[in-house]
Design brief:
Elements: E1 2-12, H1 18-36, E2 39-44, E3 51-60, H2 63-78, E4 83-94
Antiparallel strand pairs: 1-3, 1-4, 2-3
């Protein structure tokens, strides 16, 4: 069993309030969850209205499939016109690691 963790740091476009931020981030989170069947949430920078950190968790039987899912999620977010992907960090864990 492999567990992948993807952390995405994004800059939001023309957003001037936390309410507008929610209206941009929520659809991205929902689309990732629905399209890729992954666990996803806004994990940091909730008090900043132009920045967001989105965390994605993947569980898979193979490392290759976990990496493929994380790459797909990263490309999906990078392709969204309403935000700019500043950085992405992937980590992969397996059950033999302690």
């Amino acid at each position: 069993m492999y567990v992948g963790a993807l952390s995405l740091d994004v800059l939001l476009g023309d957003v001037r309030s936390l309410k507008q931020k929610r209206s941009v981030v929520r659809p991205v989170v929902a689309d990732l969850r629905r399209k890729f069947s992954v666990s996803v949430a806004e994990t940091a920078d909730q008090d900043l209205y132009r920045r967001a950190k989105i965390g994605v968790a993947v569980v898979s039987s193979t490392a290759a499939h976990a990496r493929e899912l994380m790459d797909s999620c990263e490309r999906f977010v990078a392709g969204r016109p309403e935000l700019e992907l500043l950085s992405a960090r992937q980590r992969l864990f397996n059950e033999e690691e302690d």
